[in-house]
Amino acid sequence: MWLDIVKESLKEIKELIDKKGKKRAKVYDAIEAINKAANRTSIFISKSISGTYKSDQELSDMWLEAAKTVRELDDDLYLRLLGKAEYWSNPEEWPDDKVKQVKSSLLEIKREARALLKKKSKSIKIDQASNG
Question: Cα torsion for 17, 21, 23, 26, to the nearest 10°?
Answer without folding.
Answer: -170
